[in-house]
From TrEMBL:
InterPro entries: GPCR_Rhodpsn, GPCR_Rhodpsn_7TM, PglndnF_rcpt, Prostanoid_rcpt, Prostglndn_DP_rcpt. The keyword Coiled coil does not apply. The chain crosses the membrane at residues 30-54, 66-92, 104-131, 152-172, 200-228, 249-274. It is found in: Cell membrane. Keywords: Cell membrane, Disulfide bond, G-protein coupled receptor, Glycoprotein, Membrane, Receptor, Transducer, Transmembrane, Transmembrane helix. It is a multi-pass membrane protein. One of its GO terms (biological process) is response to lipid. This is Prostaglandin F2-alpha receptor. It holds the Pfam family 7tm_1.
């Protein structure tokens, strides 16, 4: 876990790295990182193909907006997994010797920006999808006449630009992303925080992530209750309702996966930002919550792969047949 002995300390940061290294990574090989990245890329690629095919099929229908946002979410997960995974593999392959291969801190800044963007953007998109479905179910006329594909693309662009802006805030404020104690990833400054600006970045990240999860929960709850209310009122438009239920089931899957994977990390960052816990004392726990968060990019695509209408119908028929027999 120490840096190469032939390299002399060149800055206080090098001494800090050697003193605050998190002793959890010794048994984690580069092979595991490569397998983890490969599984994520393949899962997201399969989900992208399924969603793109469905989008072409429903291009002029009410489902197109949802599929467009879902495709954007999975594509974001794909590139987040690809970029962050590639950098992580390089870091492991270089024996985590940041002082040797990143003296200018450029790679660490890129890593940190990608970490923040690939974390917040899918959460924002998940909440935007929940809002879109909530309006589609509770205000169908307004949704069909006012919310066009053009409007959805504008909202999608706005969400992505906002996530990029948040990720670039430290750079715009002349602050660097910092190598974390495990020396395997970069993020906002999390140790020995004394400046309000460093605290602000952590709290902003945690607040926006938790807010997105909260909006998703509220909108999905309203959508689900609305669908249950009309389920037995009328037998008309059963096809439309079945597609609504499919999308809501997928949204609930996304929300559950996001909450389970991201909530621990977001709460940990908020605790560090509010000085409730010290990063050095919770290094291993923080690294564990980070790994939970990265699983979100692998599990998200399987929500679309497994919770499709055709798969659910086949599963229902199989269970029905098994029960009869």
């Amino acid at each position: 876990m120490s840096t190469n002995s032939s390299i002399q300390p060149v800055s206080p940061e090098s001494e800090l790295l050697s003193n605050t290294t998190c002793q959890l990574e010794e048994d984690l090989s580069i092979s595991f990182s490569i397998i983890f990245m490969t599984v994520g890329i393949l899962s997201n690629s399969l989900a992208i193909a399924i969603l793109m095919k469905a989008y072409q099929r429903f291009r002029q229908k009410y489902k197109s907006s949802f599929l467009l946002l879902a495709s954007a979410l999975v594509i974001t997960d794909f590139f987040g997994h690809l970029i962050n995974g590639t950098i992580a593999v390089f870091v492991y392959a270089s024996d985590k010797d940041w002082i040797y291969f990143d003296k200018s801190n450029i790679l660490c800044s890129i890593f940190g920006i990608c970490m923040v963007f690939s974390g917040l953007c899918p959460l924002f998109l998940g909440s935007l999808m929940a809002i879109e479905r909530c309006i589609g179910v509770t205000k169908p006329i307004f949704h069909s006449t006012k919310i066009t594909t053009k409007h959805v693309k504008m909202m999608l662009s706005g969400v992505c630009f906002f996530a990029v802006f948040v990720a670039l805030l430290p750079i715009l404020g002349h602050r660097d992303y910092k190598i974390q104690a495990s020396r395997t990833w970069c993020f906002y400054k999390t140790d020995e925080i004394k400046d309000w600006e460093d605290r602000f970045y952590l709290l902003l990240f945690a607040f926006l992530g938790l807010l997105a999860l909260g909006i998703s929960f509220v909108c999905n709850a309203i959508t689900g209750i609305s669908l249950l209310k009309v389920k037995f009122r009328s037998q008309q438009h059963r096809q439309g309702r079945s597609h609504h239920f499919e999308m809501v089931i997928q949204l609930l899957g996304i929300m559950c996966v996001s909450c389970i994977c991201w909530s621990p990390f977001l709460v940990t960052m908020a605790s560090i930002g509010m000085n409730i816990q010290d990063f050095k004392d919770s290094c291993e726990r923080t690294l564990f919550t980070l790994r939970m968060a990265t699983w979100n990019q692998i599990l998200d695509p399987w929500v679309y792969i497994l919770l499709r209408k055709a798969v659910l119908r086949n599963l229902y028929e199989h269970l029905k047949t098994k029960r009869i027999n």
